[in-house]
Design goal:
This protein is of the alpha/beta class. The chain has one domain: 3-Layer(aba) Sandwich (Rossmann fold). Helix content is 46%, strand content 18%. The chain contains twelve helices and eight strands. Strands 1-2-4-3-5-6-7-8 form an eight-stranded mixed β-sheet, sandwiched between helices. It is globular.
Length: 278
């Protein structure tokens, strides 16, 4: 896989497809492969750039603290390094937080923004939840197992566990197959999640924005829908019924079709995009 040197770190990435560029930003503890179910469809219409954020996958694992804003700056520098002037940007959870900062700080680089399971500012509930994951990570000393045992139950509904145990097992095997994040890097990344606060940045986002939540998501629940919708003026809200935090795995076909529809609508050459820009 190719690599780019940005902000004194090496960013590993995968590139697939043809068409307008689409940046896919991973969620907490995940690497570039986490959107595998989406890239298979997205790459038919977009050139997909799936990234390993610093501290994950095959990207650099620098010491020292960093913020979600720093991760957004990495993405902007990556775009500059590989010659992407403007792109569609999509992310789930941490990836959405990074996308938020990217669109606020570098509005001219974002064609459209898709925020899945996002939150404008970490509240007490998310802080406690992430701190619990940190405790489990240290106790197990194994980030993939922590993800499967501690994070997965917040990502999927009880019904998915009951009805499709083989699917849960396949997702677990997939997590175990990826390059493992170190405990130290997880602590850095999760601390950035805890410190995330983009509340005052929302009105700087000018790109057409899709905001989605899972109906049954308890972590980033629809309690954040109104603040995000009101804060980002050019935004649409979509709720995936019967899903928790990871609709992209629970309802793959619907997630892909609805998100593709949004990005196509706001492609540079589309009539809708041209009308909104006029």
């Amino acid at each position: 896989m190719p690599k780019a040197q940005v902000n004194h770190v090496t960013i590993n990435y995968d590139q697939q497809g043809t068409g307008e560029p689409l940046i896919l930003i991973p969620y907490l503890a995940a690497d570039s492969a986490c959107y595998a179910f989406q890239v298979a469809e997205y790459a038919k219409q977009f050139t997909c750039f799936s990234l390993d954020l610093r501290g994950t996958g095959e990207s650099s694992q620098p010491e020292g603290d960093y913020s979600v804003e720093d991760l957004a700056d990495d993405v902007a520098a990556f775009m500059q390094a590989v010659g992407i002037r403007k792109a569609h940007v999509s992310g789930l959870s941490l990836g959405a937080a990074v996308g938020m900062w990217l669109a606020a700080k570098h509005p001219d680089r974002v064609q459209s923004l898709s925020l899945h399971g996002a939150w404008p500012r970490t509240d007490r509930f998310i802080k406690l939840l992430v701190e619990n994951w940190q405790i489990v990570a240290k106790a197990l000393n194994d980030i993939p197992e922590m993800v499967i045992r501690a994070i997965f139950p917040w990502c999927f509904t009880p019904e998915l566990y009951a009805d499709k145990p083989q699917y849960i097992q396949a997702l677990s095997d997939f997590v175990r197959s990826r390059p493992p994040q170190s405990v130290a890097s997880f602590m850095q990344q999760s601390n950035a999640v805890i410190a995330h606060d983009a509340e005052l940045q929302l009105d700087r986002i000018t790109a057409p924005t899709l905001i989605t939540f899972g109906e049954k998501d308890a972590a980033t629940s629809t309690r954040f829908a109104e603040p995000l919708k009101n804060g980002i003026r050019n935004s649409d809200l979509l709720i995936f019924r019967g899903c928790a935090h990871a609709a992209l795995y629970e309802q793959v076909e619907e997630f892909n079709s609805r998100t593709l529809e949004f990005m196509r609508m706001h492609s540079a050459g589309s009539a809708t995009s041209s009308a909104r820009s006029a």
